[in-house]
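Folds abound. A case:
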Amino acid sequence: MAIVAFPGIAAAGDEWEFEIGGGVGYESKYEGSNEMEVMFLPVLGVTWNDRVYLTTEDGLGVVAYDDYDLTAEVSVNYDWGRDESDSSDLDGLGDIDGAPTLNLSLEYEIGPVSPFVELTRFLGGSDGLEVSFGIETMIPVSALIGEGSASGMAESDDEDESGPAILAGVSTTWSDDKYMDSYFGINSTQSTRSGLSRFNAKSGFKAVGAELGFVYPVFESWEVRTMIEYTRLVGDAADSPISKDNNVLFGGLAVSYKF
């Protein structure tokens, strides 16, 4: 789930913009795992004319349409799949290959909030389709203490001038049969190898979630971001024997430099 992009690129007047940095994350080993792991968060990005971008978070994309309220983006990214070696709970289930993804996102700004829909088509691996719906917001701290408006962040041409801000969002994700069967289904061969009962995971809503983050500009070009994400598996994803814990967690801290 990615309601608010963690390593984002701030809008500015320059034709080319770059961002570099890194951080650390703490997350569930896989969707449905009851084990956690620490991971490195790379922050790398370049954008051209606020239209074309390449980032570690969003891949290679283009803003195909933008009329200030409605924005449409098309991008290509990469999903790393899932390895049996990621956890002993996956023993006997085999690997799910990584694959490129084709993504389409639509967002409509209504004051301080932005409803959105994101479609992800996996071009390999599970060969599945996921659709996420949600609402996100980015509110300057100054607005919360009565020194500015909630829309000030979106209207500013320089994120650094807007000061610290709170990021928040909620979403739900629907997954098709191919995705659900790959990540949460158990066929007869997998059942024999793993000792888990056979399970047919069908299409449906996979999860609901929420995010809360904080962005703090430091000096002129440095920025610190923190993010906490909570996802609750539902439906067949929650009922699958693969899911040992229906609470999927992520927490991260990153520092980046923009130029």
Summary: The first strand starts at residue 16 and ends at 28.
